[in-house]
Design goal:
With about 290 residues, the protein is mostly helical. The protein has one domain (about 70-205, about 210-280). Helix content is about 60%, strand content about 0%. The longest helix has 29 residues, at about 1-30. The N and C termini lie far apart (about 45 Å).
Length: about 290
């Protein structure tokens, strides 16, 4: 019976979460819940679910233990909360400016909300993919993105282990087009909930099998290879939510081999402030 439940969790947890997050969010907002609170509730519930999965069906037992990284990951998690809020202020200013030369009514708000969410998610994800690929290719930008690739194991908490300047660039590439198009807050939140769920599962230390979804979404099975310190794999699987961009670009990688035990750019400082300042040092960066 235990084996059956583990297999059920392994195969059903990820698609169930992707489906339930926007559906429950939509219901909650229809009942009067504030969009911001809906996104917070979705994030907290997904964190709790993924953390339980990591205990019930761990992908790698060694990754369930503290590697001396929890404090640093927590501080990066807190800093990541500031980026969307700060960028929203910048983007609001851009939106006001853009309104003077962009025609109104660009966003198809008359379409069913499920279609709007799908369109918003695809647009935002394409921007995130392009921004992510850019930070891998431009040496100056890689200095900041390397902070994310310094993690030595994957688990839910380091899904937001990004240097703030790196996260700002990728977030801007993802969200700004939607704000300029005039996407409403409900659609933004539902699309963001999908991205949040995927990011947490993408970095989770749980034995989650996505099957055919590995050709649509950027899953944990694919993203673990993105964190391998090998250019053939590390500079591939750029997708944040969708993997279809990598399929089209020929950068999708899913080997049959086991993911190496040790991940990340090494050697690398471990403390939060050291990692914040590392991109500004004259030390060589790993590629």
């Amino acid at each position: 019976m235990q084996g059956f439940l583990q297999k059920l969790l392994s195969r059903g947890a990820y698609p169930s979460a992707l489906l339930l997050a926007p559906v429950l969010g939509f219901v909650a907002m229809n009942l009067g819940a504030h969009p911001g609170l809906v996104l917070v509730a979705t994030t907290v519930a997904t964190i709790a679910f993924v953390a339980l999965l990591e205990r019930a069906i761990p992908y790698r037992d060694a990754w369930t233990h503290n590697h001396g990284d929890v404090a640093t990951d927590s501080l990066f998690g807190v800093s990541s909360l500031l980026v969307p809020a700060l960028w929203r202020g910048v983007a609001d200013g851009l939106g006001i400016t853009a309104a003077t030369f962009l025609p109104s009514g660009l966003w198809p708000s008359e379409l069913p909300i499920v279609v709007q969410v799908a369109i918003a998610f695809v647009i935002a994800d394409l921007g995130a993919w392009a921004g992510h690929r850019l930070v891998h290719r431009v040496p100056l930008l890689w200095r900041f993105h390397e902070v994310h690739h310094s993690v030595r194991r994957l688990y839910w908490l380091n899904s937001q282990h990004f240097h703030p300047l790196d996260l700002t660039l990728i977030h801007a590439a993802s969200v700004t087009p939607l704000l300029l198009l005039g996407v409403g807050p409900e659609v933004l939140v539902l699309a963001a909930s999908l991205s949040t769920v995927n990011a947490l599962f993408q970095h989770c230390n749980a034995r989650v099998e996505a099957g055919p979804l590995n050709w649509i979404f950027s899953t944990a099975q694919l993203h673990r290879w993105h964190h391998v310190h090998d250019a053939d794999y590390g500079h591939a699987n750029y997708g944040a939510g969708l993997i279809v961009w990598d399929v089209l670009a020929g950068t999708r990688r899913l080997p049959t081999d086991a993911v190496p035990d040790d991940l990340g750019a090494q050697p690398f400082p471990r403390r939060f402030w050291q990692q914040l300042l590392r991109p500004f040092s004259n030390k060589e960066v790993s590629r």
